[in-house]
């Protein structure tokens, strides 16, 4: 039952993702991509659980490595997206840097 | 309410913030706030996970998280905007390897069901492909390795065998889960190898497709890892990213009038050879270019990857402002696949302080291109190549292009008379109304600017 339930959630999430992104102006393609990439760093949650669950040395070590990589993804992804979006300005609105 | 329910409740809030964040990323006015919302969602998900009673030891987590955060923050701050495609590729790769490791670590859980082992297999497969594929993409983008398509005769056969071996090993693993069996190591190794094989036949000009596809994979890998450890937030967030990446990939493929499988499996230009075009090019010097621009009332810049290479975005913006002060209407026409990642040119021009409402899309400029006095092509080639419209033998035939050849005058800024990235001849260079401004794009434009100022 658990597997069916999770697959159901998967299906709905995919359709939601399609709907959310279908109309994005080309200007925002890069920030959208790097912003979405930062969200995929959610695997950090899984990494934390593996690293902390102490199911043996090897499992913990793999988990810790996963935490490091996923944190790079999350922190770097959000920061670089923010840096890019800060540069986008409308005509005559933002001041020149 | 027990702790577990509380955690899942917090996950729902995190998922909501991701959804709103993604939605807001689709509009320039709200994009920055959207990114902030989604990062708050991430913070909530991480904090409540740390509160979970499943986490017993924190030493390794703290060390690893600090190390990762430092690397991520420093590289995000220091990276030059021109190197953004490489950066995105590396971030994708680190997400992929993290999902692979989560899957690997989950193999050590006692009494995994065959379904769980199957999802672990998927997490390792997709995560591994994302990781090694992103590294190859990074290598091509940074030109550590040749950026062209690497194609060899038996490629499809080799890939087929590889995939069959992967699934055989995966099946064996599901039937008899083990972390030390040869099958398990085969799954690890073959997944990484397959990622390399998927990306090497893709040429540099097709990179926007690969980058967005790998972005999608990094989400799907997280999603598979979510199944492996029975975690809903991983499934939801991963699937959102996977779907978003697929949409973007599809937009890129459409912009080239090609199918995804065509991009992935046939090296660009490997099949057909274009009809040779011959003619006389008409060079122009900066002084004369200035005279024409000075009297123009409608100018469109068409940037391509060459602008990024020459770092010419700042001088282009300066010239654009001078033209505007001169009473000229200035726009920047951007092809969806110009550059090496989706939206590459937009980011560069935004960095140079060009307002985004001056950046217009291909479908918007083409109907009124006849009214453009001067179209200035800066380091773009394939995306303005009329052979895509006219020459059925051209490898890029059928790809929608910006019809600069229909503008009153076209300036093409080009280093020398070599053919473009895809090795396709460009009849635009021999056009009646085309003038070639040879030399480094940045220097050429600086000369025109100097004329304007004198």
Give your account of this protein's structure.
The complex is a heterodimer of chains A (97) and B (454). Chain A has 97 residues and is mostly helical. Chain A has a domain of 61 residues. Helix content of chain A is 75%, strand content 0%. The longest helix of chain A is centred in the C-terminal third of the chain and has 31 residues. The radius of gyration of chain A is 18 Å and the shape is flat. Chain A starts with a helix and ends in a 10-residue tail after the last helix. Chain B has 454 residues and is α/β, with parallel strands linked by helices. Chain B folds into 2 domains: 209 residues, no CATH class; 168 residues, 3-Layer(aba) Sandwich (Rossmann fold). Chain B has a 6-stranded parallel sheet with strand order 3-2-1-4-5-6. In chain B, helix 4 packs parallel to helix 8. The longest helix of chain B is centred in the first third of the chain and has 28 residues. About 1% of the residues of chain B have low confidence. Chains A and B meet through helix 1, helix 2, helix 3 and helix 4 of A and helix 1, helix 2, helix 3, helix 4 and helix 8 of B.
Largest sheet of chain A: none
Q: What is the helical fraction of chain B, as a range of percent?
A: 55-70%
Order of helices and strands of chain B: HHHHHHHHHHHEHHEHEHEHEEH
Strand content of chain A: under 5%
Overall SS class of chain A: mainly alpha
- Which parts of chain B are unreliable, with pLDDT below 50 for 5 consecutive residues or more? 268-272
N-to-C terminal Cα separation of chain A, in Å?
Answer: 57 Å
Shape of chain B, please?
A: elongated
């Amino acid at each position: 039952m658990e597997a069916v339930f999770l697959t159901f959630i998967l299906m709905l999430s995919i359709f939601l993702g399609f709907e959310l992104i279908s109309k994005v102006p080309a200007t925002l393609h890069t920030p959208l991509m790097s912003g979405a990439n930062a969200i995929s760093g959610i695997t950090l949650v899984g990494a934390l659980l593996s690293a902390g669950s102490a199911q043996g040395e090897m499992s913990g070590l793999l988990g810790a490595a996963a935490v490091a990589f996923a944190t790079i993804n999350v922190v770097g992804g959000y920061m670089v997206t923010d840096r890019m979006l800060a540069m986008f300005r409308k005509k005559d609105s933002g001041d020149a840097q | 309410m027990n702790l577990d329910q509380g955690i899942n409740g917090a996950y729902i809030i995190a998922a909501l913030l991701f959804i709103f964040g993604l939605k807001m990323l689709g509009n320039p006015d709200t994009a920055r706030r959207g990114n902030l919302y989604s990062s708050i969602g991430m913070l909530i998900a991480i904090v409540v996970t740390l509160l979970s009673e499943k986490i017993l030891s924190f030493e390794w987590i703290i060390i690893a998280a600090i190390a990762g955060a430092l690397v991520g923050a420093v590289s995000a701050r220091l990276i030059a905007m021109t190197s953004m495609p490489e950066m995105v590729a590396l971030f994708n790769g680190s997400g992929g390897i993290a999902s692979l490791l989560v899957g690997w670590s989950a193999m050590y859980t006692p009494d995994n069901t065959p379904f769980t082992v199957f999802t672990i297999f998927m997490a390792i497969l997709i995560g591994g492909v994302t990781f090694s594929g992103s590294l190859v993409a990074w290598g091509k983008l940074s030109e550590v390795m040749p950026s062209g398509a690497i194609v060899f005769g038996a490629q499809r056969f080799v890939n087929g065998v590889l995939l069959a071996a992967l699934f055989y090993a995966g099946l064996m693993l599901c039937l008899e889960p083990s972390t030390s069996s040869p099958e398990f190591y085969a799954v690890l190794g073959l997944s990484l190898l397959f990622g390399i094989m998927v990306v090497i036949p893709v040429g540099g000009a097709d990179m926007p497709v690969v980058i967005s596809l790998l972005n999608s994979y990094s989400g799907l890998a997280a999603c598979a890892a979510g199944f492996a450890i029975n975690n809903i937030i991983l499934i939801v967030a991963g699937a959102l990213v996977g779907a978003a990446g697929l949409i973007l990939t599809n937009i890129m493929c459409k912009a080239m009038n090609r199918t995804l499988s065509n991009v992935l499996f046939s090296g660009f230009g490997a099949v057909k050879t274009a009809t040779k075009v011959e003619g006389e090019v008409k060079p122009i010097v900066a002084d004369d270019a200035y005279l024409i621009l000075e009297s123009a009332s409608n100018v469109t810049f068409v940037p391509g990857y060459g602008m990024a290479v020459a770092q010419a975005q700042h001088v282009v913006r300066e010239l654009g402002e001078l033209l505007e002060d001169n009473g000229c209407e200035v726009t920047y026409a951007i092809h969806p696949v110009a550059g090496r990642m989706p939206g590459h040119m937009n980011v560069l021009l935004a960095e140079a302080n060009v307002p985004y409402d001056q950046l217009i899309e291909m479908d918007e400029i083409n109907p009124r291109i006849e009214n453009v006095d001067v179209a200035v092509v800066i380091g773009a080639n394939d995306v303005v190549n009329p052979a895509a419209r006219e020459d059925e033998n051209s490898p890029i035939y059928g790809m929608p292009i910006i019809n600069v050849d229909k503008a009153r005058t076209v300036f093409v800024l080009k280093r020398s008379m070599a053919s473009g990235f895809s090795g396709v001849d460009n009849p635009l260079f021999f056009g009646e109304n085309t003038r070639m401004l040879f030399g480094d794009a940045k220097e050429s434009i600086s000369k025109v600017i100097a004329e304007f100022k004198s």
